[in-house]
Design goal:
25% of the residues lie in helices and 23% in strands. By secondary structure, it is α+β, with helices and mostly antiparallel strands. It has two domains: 10-177, no CATH class; 193-233, no CATH class. The strands form two sheets. Strands 1, 2, 3, 4, 5 and 8 form a six-stranded mixed sheet that branches. The chain has a two-stranded antiparallel ribbon with strand order 6-7. The chain is globular and about 50 Å long.
């Protein structure tokens, strides 16, 4: 699998060269068996497809679903996001706006086996980016995540990983080479409950009743003071 953002693998480089692209691997990494990096994908139907170009060279359309996956991957391995979220599920609650577009973004921080320090990564998330119509994939990503990059290569998303940038991995562990298991996104947080119309009407009725009692008391007080010859202050 390629180094996603702007540095494809030697295999993908051969394919891209056929259509005139000019992307290269970092110098001195020829002996690496794989890389630990963020991969960039687009959802096509129900399948993730590896992006043919870097995020700053692609302009996703309204309704697109973009994916990012952190993983250890070789030149021939594909580690796509383990979540297949639909646009409606991610951006259904975001209203369309003139001059802007909505793009669903899935961020998969990978498995424990993908982490250099063996730590537990955050659970995958899906966010809706509302950005100008001409926004590139890089600008879409920046709208939903904190991005650390180096010379066009995405190094970290939301400070994950905290250090490093697409470093080579000479030996792939058995756990890192194991097949992925699909992941289900956590349900969205429920909206805060609001007062129902019935409760609102009930509160309004109580308020009117109290005001009526106060007004009646004021009238009776005036009559009593008038009858006794007193004057109100």
């Amino acid at each position: 699998m390629s180094r996603t953002s702007l540095r494809p693998s030697l295999v993908l480089l051969t394919l891209i060269a056929a259509v005139g692209a000019a992307l290269v691997l970092p110098a001195g990494s020829a002996d690496a068996a794989a890389y630990r990096f963020w991969g960039y994908f687009q959802l096509n139907g129900s399948s993730w497809q590896f992006a043919p170009k870097g995020p700053d060279q692609l302009t996703p359309a309204e309704g697109a679903v973009e994916g990012w996956r952190f993983a250890v991957a070789s030149d021939t391995d594909t580690r796509a996001p383990r979540v297949r979220a639909t646009f409606s599920a991610v951006c259904g609650d975001t209203k369309a706006q003139t001059g802007k577009k909505r793009v669903a973004v899935v961020i998969d921080y990978g498995r424990v086996a993908d982490q250099e320090d063996g730590s537990q990564p955050p659970a995958p998330v899906a966010k809706c980016a509302l950005v100008p119509t001409a926004a590139t994939g890089a600008e879409v990503l920046a709208a939903v995540a904190t991005v650390r990059s180096d010379k066009g290569l995405v190094c970290a998303l939301d400070n994950h990983p905290a250090t490093g940038c697409g470093g080579p991995v000479k030996t792939i562990s058995a756990a890192a080479a194991a097949p992925d298991t699909a992941v289900t996104l956590a349900p969205k947080a429920a909206a805060k409950p609001v007062s129902s119309p019935a409760n609102g009407h009930r509160l309004t009725g109580i308020g009117v009743f109290v005001l009526a009692l106060l007004a009646l008391g004021a009238v009776m007080l005036r009559r009593r003071l008038g009858a006794t010859g007193r004057h109100e202050l």
